[in-house]
Q: What sequence folds into this?
């Protein structure tokens, strides 16, 4: 039996787990062959530090939400490579609304609204006017890349803008909840466990991290257990059959693309509001996370759970390289350290990537077509 046939037979979660283990083994083997036992132990210690795990969770949020949005859009037959642009415009929208209202929750809604409006523009261009989806997606990215920093300069006088506040961590939120048992007994119990890496990282995470896990489960359920999910999948696989069954294909695709805007909007607003600022210099603070999201859901084979695991793989490596730069553990230039997550993802894609695109992805369809 060939290696390829074994990999093809694995489920999505098993494949991601195998990929993660493969990357870890490559790193361990490389360090061991180099005789760098002390370095290996130092890297492992950094990997399981509470600060590294907390950073991995924080970095996962925008990528995971954008990936979920991309899954819905592409499953319906619309290839949305404009996720980067949706993240950018929602990151600015979240900071702008928060600076006006003083509420991060209002800012989150503002970011979602900005992203959804841009997604609506993309949907109209692609579905109504049958534009090339790849070109339209690139246009959305470029529009957001220019519009968000320009709007920040007009409103705040700089491409960088401050929201004035950030999301609270879940521990502080529970402590201020006013619920007797939760704000005292539960918080005290969690405080006693805060020294443990995994528990401490979760306890200090923002509520958006928990919303991310809920969104992954809800997305999987929606796609696999609801009528809307079946319509989305049919729209991307066989739109003619869906049309014959009496379901309007265009409406399903509009709904899926708008949902991708909502999900990406949560991710973009969470990215900026977790730091309390919007950075519009260069590629902006989003810095390619929308494109990484595309990679994660392709690696996860359009499964929300697989996409989440892929996201955690990349975010964990990204958090590790940040820690490695701060600690100077590896005797290699920092620019090379920064490439660790990207090179690892490329290796995983090359070794374990077995993605099947929806049959009608990228194809236009109008009800009544033969």
A:
């Amino acid at each position: 039996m060939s290696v390829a046939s074994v990999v093809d037979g694995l489920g999505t979660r098993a494949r991601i787990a195998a990929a993660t283990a493969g990357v870890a083994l490559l790193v361990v083997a490389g360090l061991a062959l180099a005789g760098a036992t002390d370095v290996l132990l130092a890297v492992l210690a950094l990997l399981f530090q509470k600060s590294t795990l907390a950073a991995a969770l924080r970095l996962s949020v925008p990528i995971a939400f954008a990936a979920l949005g991309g899954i819905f859009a592409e499953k319906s037959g619309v290839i949305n490579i404009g996720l980067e642009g949706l993240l950018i415009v929602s990151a600015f929208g979240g900071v702008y609304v928060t600076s006006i209202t003083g509420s991060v929750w209002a800012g989150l809604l503002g970011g979602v609204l900005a992203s959804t409006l841009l997604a609506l523009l993309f949907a109209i261009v692609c579905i109504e006017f049958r534009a090339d989806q790849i070109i339209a997606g690139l246009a959305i990215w470029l529009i957001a890349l220019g519009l968000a920093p320009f709007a920040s300069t007009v409103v705040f006088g700089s491409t960088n803008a401050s929201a004035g506040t950030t999301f609270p961590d879940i521990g502080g939120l529970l402590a201020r909840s006013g619920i007797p048992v939760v704000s005292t007994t539960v918080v005290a119990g969690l405080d006693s466990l805060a020294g443990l890496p995994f528990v401490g990282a979760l306890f200090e995470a923002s509520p958006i991290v928990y919303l991310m896990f809920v969104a992954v489960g809800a997305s999987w359920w929606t796609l696999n257990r609801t009528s809307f999910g079946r319509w989305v999948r049919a729209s991307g696989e066989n739109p003619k059959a869906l049309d014959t069954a009496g379901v309007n294909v265009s409406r399903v695709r509009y709904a899926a693309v708008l949902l991708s805007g909502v999900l990406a909007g949560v991710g973009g607003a969470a990215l900026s509001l977790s730091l309390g600022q919007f950075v519009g210099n260069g590629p902006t603070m989003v810095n390619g996370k929308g494109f990484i999201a595309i990679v994660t859901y392709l690696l996860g084979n359009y499964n929300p759970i697989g996409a989440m695991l892929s996201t955690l793989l990349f975010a964990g490596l990204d958090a590790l390289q940040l820690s490695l730069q701060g600690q100077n553990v590896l005797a290699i230039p920092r620019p090379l350290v920064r490439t660790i997550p990207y090179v690892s993802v490329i290796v995983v894609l090359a070794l374990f990537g077995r993605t099947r695109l929806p049959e009608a992805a990228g194809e236009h369809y109008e009800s009544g077509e033969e």
Observations:
- The two ends are 43 Å apart (CA to CA).
- Strands lie at 160-162, 277-279.
